[in-house]
Amino acid sequence: MHGPASPGWLLVTLCAATGAYCLLRMRSSVEEQRRAAGGEALMGFGMAAMAVPATVAAPPRWAWLAYAAVFGAAAVRALWVARTGPHHLHHLVGACAMVYMAGVMATAPGRHTHGGSGVPLLTGVLLLYFTGYVLRSGLRLLPTGSVVGGPGTVGWADRPELSQACRLSMGIAMLAMLVTL
Questions:
Q1: In angstroms, rounded to a whole number, what is the distance separating the alpha carbons of residues 174 and 180?
Q2: How confident is the model at residue 32 (pLDDT cuts 50, 70, 90)?
Q3: Interior angle at CA 102, CA 99 and CA 104, nearest 5
Q4: Closest CA to 91 of 32, 159, 144
């Protein structure tokens, strides 16, 4: 993505660390956790690759098209999984947002905006969605006052607060990437 190098590297680090933790979560004994963690790991590493500052490595057009193809396939998979429940729709929105950003970067590399004035409609809709998602995810991390089980009762790969923190950090990263379009 385009923008200042220092925040870009922070974004790369955040997304790569989140992707790495999601890979570790794939060792969970709960199948639903493993499945979700795989998709989130792909999203984290993909976001890290796309966030590398353009001043360091400006990817060729074909790389953006490859990102669009990979996340297009992830969107199709998310659409297939979403038929089992609406809670999977976020993965679909995230994958579609990645396809959109890759498409924008493939058609306008080196530019910070789409041209014209204002924010394009789809970018604005995605910014609103991910802002709501980040706020909701942050609220879900707040303590509720009740403790379910004590330390050691849940495996580290199955800790819901860590999974939620990963989702929150990827939502924030998605917002940062959308703002730079």
A1: 10
A2: confident
A3: 110
A4: 32
Is 85 exposed, middle or buried (CB count within 10 Å of its CB: 0-12, 13-18, 19+)?
Answer: exposed
Structural Rg of the chain based on CA atoms: 17
pLDDT level of residue 113 (50, 70, 90 thresholds): very low
Find all residues with CB under 8 Å of 180, minimum gap 6, and list them.
Answer: 1, 2, 3, 112
Contact 33/162 with Cβ under 8 angstroms?
no
Tokens of residue 63, six digits: 């790389």
- The answer to whether 50 and 1 are in contact (CB under 8 A) is yes
Compute the distance between CA of residue 14 and CA of residue 55 in angstroms, rounded to an integer. Answer: 19
For the stretch 141-156, pLDDT in tens is 887 765 555 555 556 5
Report the residue count for the chain: 181
Q: How far apart are CA 38 and CA 57, in angstroms?
A: 27
Q: Can you read off the two tokens belonging to residue 98? A: 């990645």
The C-alpha atoms of residue 131 and residue 133 are separated, in whole angstroms, by 5
